[in-house]
């Protein structure tokens, strides 16, 4: 067992964002937050710089969790390793043909994304198995050796191997890897039977190719980071946040980098889940709004919803990921009028440089943040350490074209600002409905946890519009992803497709599959420092009605016998009813995929909170004219750091913190809870 199993005296979470690298250190229950500029050209340098500023001896760090955007940026920018594909004869173009879906159904000139592996890097080998794994044609090993020579000549850095129906018969893929090594090929190899042993040829091949393309990139990054962290004196093993909302060992992340594509956002969802759970709230919707986008997700019974249907950039990735829906609405999103005369917001953003006009860093176009300034809701000097003198006239000049288009008067700045926020909120409201109403969940039964720099500015209005009764703004709202790294379990997911009629499923075959997964999970979790009494295993089956092309995951809760299989089928009908509004119990059901989640439980650190006494009125920093849906009002502005525990604030009010600002609308009430979270009871006239 490694040292990180014992109660840690110093725990550090490091989340790398596009602008800042956030660090949260917990030592003796005390939280310290640090931010350092990210270094996109060499992300590990920003991490090292941040660690050097930690206010604790680095040789006493017992736990180090890391959220990374390295894999995500590589995909979005197409900066990955030179990769080849070895596949079954006749299927080299499957990864390029893809599905019949089009990026834009009404665009006759729409093009599909560039394939990860160029056609001259795709190689075929003779072999064939059927859909049950029976060998129809043995692997032609001589042909594989010829392909190895071709691969050596091409000089590729990485190879993906994806053979037809390998999830039922992985032996051919494994033999291909052995032969490539025997032939001296100096390249990393990814097998689809390891990366994604599931049906759907295109998605399986694409995901395997993406993993292969990312392996050298992630291997170099994590290798360099581990060396630099070790040089600082940190002995704790590095844990990397996976897209599924669980930590994984650094070695596992280097081997399966495709599982880290939503590392940072997943950590934020885990942090929000922890904050709400301490309040006894297990059903919540999370909202992470930064400068360029807004990420929303749904948590049910204390666990984030996980999906295998995710897109990163233009590519579908079918590994388990926290179900996060992203819209291009952030604080830096630019407002404009389209060719039809309609007011639009985003997805284009002013970003960190030049940023919104009110940041006085050279921005000239009106943004969401500027709209809040016009309406008196924010003061950039309260959260920008290098803020220049405010120039409200520049902001109003930037809004003049919008005001002219919206109200016919370039001086109608407030009207244009309200319109811009209405449009931005409409975009985010649709996103919240996607993860709730469209998934069969009633948002009125959930709390909304808002974080990120801009999330708390909008959350109270959005909650009011969707009848969400409560908004929780964590005390660490600006660094919640880094905090989430400190409370997440170690999680590994295992799966294999077994497509057959459910009535024909052999319970013994399922028991064998689950037993094999559990054995593998125990080994990986023990390597990650988890003791046997800290292990938990969750079994699910993906089912569908015969003839459908989509499926739903349902849990397996008892011994795998005929009675439990009947209960599983009943759960599927119920899940189908909730998700799609109908079920057909008389229709035959198919088993698609067997899944097991292996969880190594991590004891969250105890976080000390200073109980503050006093009068809430003493926290009023100023009174400001603030615009709401029913007009402007003289509104108290509270310094969040000075609000006493259990203080209540009636709207209208603005609560300013060092990381975020909360707008409490008329008719709403905010309270500081025992964890220093700001909890807003909605029901007012939010926009």
Automatic annotation (TrEMBL):
Residues 508-674 form the Acetophenone carboxylase-like C-terminal domain. Residues 626-643 have a biased composition (Basic and acidic residues). InterPro entries: ACX-like_C, Hydant_A_N, Hydantoinase_A, Oxoprolinase-like. Residues 204-493 form the Hydantoinase A/oxoprolinase domain. Residues 11-184 form the Hydantoinase/oxoprolinase N-terminal domain. Residues 626-651 are annotated as: Disordered. It holds the Pfam family Hydant_A_C. PANTHER family: 5-OXOPROLINASE RELATED, HYPOTHETICAL 5-OXOPROLINASE (EUROFUNG)-RELATED. This is Hydantoinase/oxoprolinase family protein. The lineage of its organism: Archaea, Methanobacteriati, Methanobacteriota, Stenosarchaea group, Halobacteria.
């Amino acid at each position: 067992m490694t040292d990180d199993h014992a109660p840690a005296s110093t725990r550090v979470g490091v989340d790398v964002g596009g602008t800042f690298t956030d660090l949260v250190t917990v030592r003796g229950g005390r939280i310290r937050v640090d931010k350092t500029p990210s270094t996109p050209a060499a992300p590990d340098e920003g991490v090292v710089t941040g660690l050097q500023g930690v206010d604790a001896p680095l040789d006493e760090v017992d736990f180090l969790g890391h959220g990374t955007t390295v894999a995500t940026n590589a995909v979005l920018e197409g900066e990955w390793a030179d990769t080849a594909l070895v596949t079954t004869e006749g299927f080299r173009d499957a990864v390029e043909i893809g599905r019949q879906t089009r990026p834009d159904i009404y665009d006759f000139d729409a093009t599909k994304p560039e394939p990860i592996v160029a056609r001259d890097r795709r190689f075929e080998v003779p072999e064939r198995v059927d859909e049950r794994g029976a060998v129809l044609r043995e692997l032609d090993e001589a042909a594989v050796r010829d392909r190895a020579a071709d691969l050596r000549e091409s000089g590729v850095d990485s190879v993906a191997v994806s053979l037809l129906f390998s999830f039922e018969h992985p032996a051919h893929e494994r033999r291909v890897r052995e032969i490539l090594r025997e032939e001296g090929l100096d390249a990393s190899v990814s097998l689809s039977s390891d990366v994604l042993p599931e049906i759907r040829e295109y998605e399986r091949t694409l995901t395997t190719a993406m993993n292969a393309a990312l392996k050298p990139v992630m291997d170099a990054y994590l290798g360099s980071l581990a060396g630099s962290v070790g040089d600082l004196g940190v002995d704790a093993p590095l844990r990397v946040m996976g897209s599924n909302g669980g930590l994984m060992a650094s070695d596992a992340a280097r081997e399966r980098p495709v599982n880290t594509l939503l590392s940072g956002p997943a950590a934020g969802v885990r942090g929000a889940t922890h904050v709400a759970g301490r309040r006894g709230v297990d059903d919540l919707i999370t909202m992470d709004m930064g400068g360029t986008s807004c990420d929303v997700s749904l948590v049910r019974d204390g666990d984030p919803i996980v999906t295998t249907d995710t897109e990163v950039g233009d590519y579908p990735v079918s590994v388990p990921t926290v179900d996060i829906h992203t819209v291009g609405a952030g604080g830096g999103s630019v407002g404009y009028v389209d060719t039809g005369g309609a007011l639009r917001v985003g997805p284009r953003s002013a970003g960190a440089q030049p940023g919104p006009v009110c940041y006085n860093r050279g921005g000239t176009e009106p943004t969401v943040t500027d709209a809040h300034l016009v309406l008196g809701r924010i003061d950039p000097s309260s959260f920008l350490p290098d803020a220049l003198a405010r120039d409200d006239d520049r902001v109003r000049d930037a809004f003049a074209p919008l005001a002219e288009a919206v109200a016919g008067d370039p001086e109608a700045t407030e009207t244009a600002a309200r319109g811009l926020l209405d449009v931005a909120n409409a975009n985010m409201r649709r996103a919240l409905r996607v993860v709730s109403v469209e998934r069969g969940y009633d948002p009125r039964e959930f709390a909304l946890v808002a974080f990120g720099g801009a999330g708390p500015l909008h959350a109270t209005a959005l909650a009011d519009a969707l009848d969400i009764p409560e908004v929780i703004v964590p005390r660490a709202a600006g660094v919640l992803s880094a905090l989430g790294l400190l409370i997440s379990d170690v999680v590994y997911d295992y799966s294999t497709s077994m497509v057959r009629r459910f009535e024909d499923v052999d319970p013994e075959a399922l028991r064998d599959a689950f037993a094999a997964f559990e054995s593998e999970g125990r080994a990986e979790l023990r390597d990650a420092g988890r003791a046997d009494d800290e292990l938990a295993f969750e079994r699910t089956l993906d089912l569908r009605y015969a003839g459908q092309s989509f499926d739903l995951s349902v849990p397996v809760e008892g011994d795998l016998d005929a009675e439990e299989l009947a209960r599983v089928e009943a759960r599927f009908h119920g899940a189908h009813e909730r998700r799609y509004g109908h079920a057909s119990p008389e229709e035959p059901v198919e088993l698609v995929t067997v899944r097991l989640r292996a969880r190594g439980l991590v004891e969250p650190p105890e976080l000390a909170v200073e109980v503050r006494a006093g009068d809430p009125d003493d926290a009023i920093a100023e009174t400001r004219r603030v615009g709401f849906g029913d007009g402007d009002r003289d509104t108290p502005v509270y310094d969040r750091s000075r609000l006493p525990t259990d203080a209540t604030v009636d709207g209208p009010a603005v609560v300013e913190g060092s990381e975020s600002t909360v707008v409490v609308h008329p008719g709403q009430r905010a309270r500081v809870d025992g964890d220093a979270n700001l909890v807003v009871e909605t029901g007012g006239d939010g926009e």
